[in-house]
Design a protein that fits this description.
2 copies of one chain form a homodimer.
Chain A lengths: L2 H20 L30 H12 L21 H12 L11 H17 L15 E5 L2 H20 L6 H11 L3 E6 L5 H9 L2 E5 L13 H13 L3 E8 L11 H8 L6 E5 L24 E5 H4 L7 E5 L2 H8 L9 H4 L19 H35 L5 E3 L7 E6 L7 H19 L5 E5 L2 E7 L7 H21 L19
Helix pairs in contact in A: 3-13, 4-13, 5-7, 5-11, 8-9, 13-15, 14-15
InterPro entries (chains A, B): Aromatic_deC, PyrdxlP-dep_de-COase, PyrdxlP-dep_Trfase, PyrdxlP-dep_Trfase_major, PyrdxlP-dep_Trfase_small, Pyridoxal-P_BS
Keywords (chains A, B): Decarboxylase, Lyase, Pyridoxal phosphate
Pfam family, one (chains A, B): Pyridoxal_deC
């Protein structure tokens, strides 16, 4: 493919993509292909001779599109969103054109420096405490990771090593040091509420440390938040078993219900356990911190060690773009750098040159800062804030519609960050919960089978509930009004069909509500 | 940015990128900006109101370009290449347009299914043994990882858990099982030759296991290969210390000299240690396996557990695209899946539905299979083979030029996979090596300061050497002839200036030769 063939191909691809975005609402949002559909459509191997772009592009429409679930459709109300935007796409385009490995500053100084700059911009925009800036007195800073799960395993590994190094700080020899670490490694335990995202659990598997969850209560007027007393009780219980808590994930916006942990209480308790690394997982809801009305939530974050939010979820920047901030970058380097300290670049220690490979698990990295830069400049602060406020307003409108039909629905938690969680009201009585779960699940399944909108479900204290969250840039007030009609119609149909048609709830897979 | 604004912006960006590629040779290949250059050029925060695309695009040229090291320039002869191509860029463009989280099959069935299909295509194209196909009787298959370093930490974690589960296989209770694992975890040790890429060492840090390297010899007629006897000796030595070897990285094409370990001998030794997981790191040179004349190298790989090669290095697919193949995918799932086995999808066990989140560290993933599909179809098998053979031929031509001037140069190892490693010939005598190192380093530094080409260096058994590898699609025979002239001129200048101007070698940072 030479330059002129690429020009024609790329212009055609751009027009194809615009056509896709302009008509996306007319496509069935959730793909209904059967497993293995694509293998039947493609040959057993690559062609011997090259093919023309026109052949490839026509296969995208005929063979790939039917197997896509359209996350950019306004009818995508499932999981959490994965926002795309035109400036974000341009960022990926330039990033691909500038392909380089970027494992250290010299690989492409602009890639490193722009990342530091736009993450400082983001830090201020989110009103995070000053300690998370690259210029902070604590030596903090931000780094783009692929996903929140990568950010979390990175801080778990770092926290593990900080803790072990603390234990071995007084060792006189390498052998003594290794002995202390070997004797303690298997006692380390990471904590998280049972509403925290599963990535903490997976991060612990990777880091080879134990983990324990803390059960947190919820109700229709409160939410499922981790509190100080619950945390203290668990820490003491584990210590009495000879285990050593070294890490805690707290959450701003849990996956199931967008709950917010009680940060002030947690910070107070942890004054008694200063060796525990606290990470704030704000993967989805953290985006709301760009609006003044949410910034009180971040006031106490200086008490914690790290924070991440995904611009690729709700802030108009294409996946992947998870932004991780740490208060002291030296801990990342101590854990993840394989450059002996005496060989580290003096520019690095001064903060002028950052080798981001030492802030993450992989070595190479794409030039992802470009898309953040393009998005922030194209929308401006006011445009980004308008997007967050619009989608929250649409979500609250949907929650109000649910509330307006108490004959049909019950809210499970207060609406939060554009998310509404509710069940079908099936009245009261002896078998009430069992019946409610069966009907709610039947309604949920009917909606997704029908395919006008795509939603996900969750299970909270044995209650099967429906989640609706429309936070993509194409979501409008009317989109959610129509979604409400779809939900009401599904309830009516399930009631008409009668319980005989309702399948057993059976094993409920919590996996289905997990977002990125 | 609405559709029509995006059309104009994207068409302009495409033209800009074509102009960049068409004239890339005229830019200074290695950026010479000072650390901190970009901060001086950009504001302290994002704009309050959005800006037009034209303003952003003009800043790319004026502010970003000076800070780029141009990896796609034919004058980039450093590290290993990170090949870009026009069809690869189109793959990234569509992937961004289809932004979705892709953490399970239903998220976008096409993303999962195309990945399985094109990795089976690649498996056959590389002539890997049948056990690495998704359809194999061993339950194998391939997965796209971001980089070789991610692939390697993934298999180290998997190997660690397979080994611990093997030790605890007879435990009667969870408590007994945990006790066995706790008692052995700190005894586990991973092995690699001292020429293996540093990502094995980093992977061990992340997985929390010990690691030991095996020193391997080299000469100007052999290369730095790990052999069976060296491996057996190290295993026995570690076992006698009470350690438990559980993992080994072998390499097809080491970073410093493109050495190939002795796979047949290693496989023979490991018959006596069947619990050791062997991973073949073919990150760069693995691409050559698409040509028949290299396929004998892969004949014995069925004896090993996993293999990875990076299409983003030498096979025309934009970073990131590291392809990892395993013989038994169940070990990945046992280690990395947090879905209890009784909840796993029956489609998954049958191999019809793959949830690739359980084959990797992150949860979410981009639709990277598109770019492989576009690249393979656009070039065809013959086009890909021609690219590999052309670049190897150019590399051998460069090596012949080096050999044609024994008065100036000495080869350190035979040329391999387009890479030539050499030193400046400074004659013989008492201080020979010290002088040779000083002169060679001075020549190396002069070449990069001059900036006509960008090369890297390495240190082998105390010998400071220059590496030249031109394996990008824009590299021509004349490019390497010109590079040879640059090297010769640098030697002449350094000789003219005399030793007074030659700086001390000082601390040599092995880091500088590490590729992705």
């Amino acid at each position: 493919m030479d330059s002129s063939q690429f020009r024609a191909a790329a212009h055609s691809a751009i027009d194809h993509i615009i056509g896709y975005y302009d008509t996306i609402e007319s496509r069935r949002v959730l793909s209904d292909v059967e497993p293995g559909y694509l293998k039947k459509l493609l040959p057993d191997g690559p062609p011997e001779l090259g093919e023309a772009w026109a052949e490839i592009q026509s296969d995208i429409e005929s063979k790939i599109m039917p197997g896509l679930t359209h996350w950019q459709s306004p009818n995508f109300l499932a999981f959490f969103p994965a926002n795309s935007s035109y400036p974000g796409i341009l960022g990926e385009l330039y990033s691909a054109a500038f392909t380089s490995a970027n494992f250290n500053w010299l690989c492409s100084p602009a890639a490193t420096e722009l990342e530091t700059i736009v993450l400082d911009w983001l830090c201020k925009l989110l009103s995070l405490p000053e300690c998370f800036l690259s210029t902070s007195s604590t030596g903090g800073g931000g780094v783009i990771q692929g996903s929140a799960s990568e950010a979390i395993v990175t801080v778990i590994v770092t926290a593990r090593d900080r803790y072990l190094n603390y234990l071995a700080a007084d060792a006189k020899t390498d052998g003594e040091r290794e002995g202390i670490i070997d004797a303690h490694r298997h006692k380390l335990v990471a904590l998280f509420s049972d509403q925290a995202h599963s990535s903490t659990q997976k991060g612990c598997l990777i880091a080879g440390v134990k983990h324990r969850s803390i059960k947190v209560p919820g109700s229709s007027t409160s939410n499922y938040s981790l509190t100080g007393p619950l945390l203290r009780q668990k820490i003491e219980e584990l210590k009495s078993q000879g285990l050593e808590p070294f890490y805690l994930t707290v959450t701003l916006g849990t996956t199931a219900t967008c709950a917010i942990d009680n940060f002030a209480e947690i910070a107070e308790v942890l004054k008694d356990y200063p060796q525990i690394w606290v990470h704030v997982d704000a993967a989805y809801a953290g985006a709301a911190l760009i609006c003044e009305e949410y910034q009180h939530l971040a006031v106490g974050f200086a008490a914690f060690d790290s924070f991440n939010m995904n611009m690729h979820k709700w802030l108009l920047t294409n996946f992947d773009c998870s932004c991780l901030f740490v208060k002291e970058r030296k801990h990342l380097l101590n854990s993840l750098s394989i450059t002996p300290s005496y060989l580290r670049n003096p520019h690095s220690d001064s903060g002028l040159v950052t080798d981001y490979r030492d802030w993450q698990i992989p070595l190479g990295r794409r030039f992802r800062a470009l898309k953040i830069w393009f998005v922030m400049r194209t929308y401006g602060v006011s445009g980004l804030q308008a997007h967050i406020r619009n989608t929250i307003s649409h979500g609250e409108h949907f929650a109000a519609l649910i509330k307006s039909r108490p004959d049909l629905f019950k809210s499970i938690t207060p609406p939060a960050f554009a998310l509404t969680v509710f069940v079908v009201n099936t009245g009261s009585g002896g078998q009430m919960l069992e019946m409610q779960n069966k009907i709610t699940k039947a309604v949920y399944e009917r909606i997704n089978e029908e395919g006008k909108v795509y939603i996900t479900s969750t299970v909270l204290d044995g209650i099967y509930a429906i989640r609706v969250v429309g936070a993509g840039p194409k979501v409008r007030r009317e989109t959610l009004e129509r979604a409400f009609e779809v939900v009401v119609e599904a309830v009516v149909v399930v009631r008409d069909v009668g319980l005989g048609a309702v399948v057993d709830v059976g094993e409920v897979n919590q996996e289905q509500v997990r977002g990125v």
